[in-house]
Amino acid sequence: PVLIFATHNPHKLQEVQSVLPASIRLLSLQDVGYKENIPEPYDTLEENSRVKALTIYEALQRDCFAEDSGLEVPALNGAPGARSARFAGDHASDAENLAMLLSRMEGISRREARFRTVITLIWQGKFHQVEGICEGTIATAPRGKGGFGYDPVFIPEGSQQTFAEMSLDEKNQFSHRAKAIRAFCDLVYRLTAE
Ligand code: ITT
Ligand code: NA
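^ thats the input. predicted complex w/ inosine 5'-triphosphate below
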């Protein structure tokens, strides 16, 4: 199958490509010439993921999927969650969002957190969702240069390293996105076998 991945984030595209088998062909928004912004106006990953896929489906009428990801910190009542990309303001950079997280976590000893990815596939006009979760903790200072977003402060359960200290293959052994993509592959195989 050929699927359009509704994202403007090049890191996500690279991570998804690194997990998907060659039998599932991806087209990026760049490949299909779609340049507009994709709104994500809701408070949940489920709704934002759905509306991102729907936006591309309505524009192009082709099989497509989107993902919405967020970092959920219980000590911050689940923030930044669906606002992870805008934690420090509407056009905040990854560095500004990360600095905001560390400042909100200052003096807080309860540092557990989880990353969650929700993927919405629109296949032959029907909606399907899968998710992936990675439990971990928030470091007190950033470490490492790899990855993107909050990777320099997120330490997944089962490792001592932050995501930013890992290679992409190492991050894929733990990450929310890799787990979601594996569930997504199973879903796509099931649908194409029908
Ligand atoms: P889209 O075009 O797909 O919407 P985006 O960057 O706006 O790309 P989201 O709306 O899903 O993506 O925002 C998620 C934010 O959460 C993202 O900007 C990162 O700061 C953070 N994030 C998501 N996945 C991450 C990961 O694997 N590692 C670190 N931070 C991550
Ligand atoms: Na976004």
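The pocket of inosine 5'-triphosphate (ligand 1) is lined by residues 7-9, 12, 38, 40, 68-70, 84-85, 94, 97, 147-151, 163, 175, 177 (CB under 6 Å).
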